[in-house]
Amino acid sequence: MSRPRIKQGMVQVYTGNGKGKTTASLGLALRAIGHGYKVFMLQFMKGSKDYGELQTAEKYLPNFIIMQSGLGTFVSKENPSQHDLDMAHQGFKTAQKVVNEGHYDLVILDEINIAMDFNLIPIQDVLELVNTKPPHVELIFTGRSAPEAIREAADLISEMTLVKHPYYLGIEARQGIEF
Ligand code: ATP
Ligand code: MG
């Protein structure tokens, strides 16, 4: 039996300073998988295996693949290392391949907005991906500071507004909540 296809694949952007960008995309993945769609998430600038979503996908969700393309250490905006650049380029190449093959219905590029803002990935290359993707593929970009050109190209943008965050009370990231 043939799998369902998303009717009109769009481009969604989750940005802003408030919490909920990556988790919004994970919620979309959960929803899509329930209908038989396949989801691929590439996490840019992340390299830690400690994220709960990695364990969940691996253990329980065969239709949800999550890959990371980062070092798990702080990336300097002004002076990213060659290794940071290489990882981002490698990750983007994988993303291009996955999108263009069209095997995955939802492709989530987590923190790609930051990767563009830090000049690790050229905005032009991401725009080209948007313009050449197969029609059934839904693209989801997360991360603070989504560039203006990406906002223009998107069909849906949600801006998470920071109202309160326990971080500012000195509370560190909590397992199961922040990672
Ligand atoms: P989440 O992954 O929880 O959905 P996010 O993707 O919106 O958060 P990022 O900007 O990717 O948030 O931030 C990375 C980490 O910092 C996450 O652990 C996130 O929960 C946490 N965080 C989110 N918003 C803030 C904030 N305003 N101040 C401090 N830390 C934050
Ligand atoms: Mg995030």
List the helices and strands and how they pair.
Layout: E1 11-16, H1 21-34, E2 39-44, H2 52-60, E3 64-69, H3 82-101, E4 106-110, H4 112-117, H5 123-132, E5 138-142, H6 148-153, E6 156-160
Parallel strand pairs: 1-5, 1-6, 2-3, 2-4, 4-5
The structure holds adenosine-5'-triphosphate and magnesium ion.
Reading off the top of the CATH hierarchy, the class is best stated as Alpha Beta
Which bin fits the share of residues in helices? 25-40%
CATH fold naming: Rossmann fold
CATH architecture level-2 label? 3-Layer(aba) Sandwich
Small-molecule binders here are: adenosine-5'-triphosphate, magnesium ion
Tally of helical segments: 6
Widest sheet: strand ordering: 3-2-4-5-1-6
**Would you list the SSEs in sequence order as H and E?**
EHEHEHEHHEHE
Largest sheet: 6 strands, parallel
Average of per-residue pLDDT values: 96
- Whole-Å distance between the termini? 37 Å
**Whole-number tally of structural domains:** 1
- Rg, alpha carbons: 16 Å
Walk me through this protein's architecture.
With 179 residues, the chain is an alpha/beta fold. It has a single domain (11-169), classed as Rossmann fold, CATH 3.40.50. Helices cover 36% and strands 18% of the residues. The chain is built from six helices and six strands; from the N terminus they run βαβαβαβααβαβ. Strands 3-2-4-5-1-6 form a six-stranded parallel sheet, sandwiched between helices. α2 (52-60) links the parallel β2 (39-44) and β3 (64-69). The structure holds adenosine-5'-triphosphate and magnesium ion. Adenosine-5'-triphosphate binds next to α1.
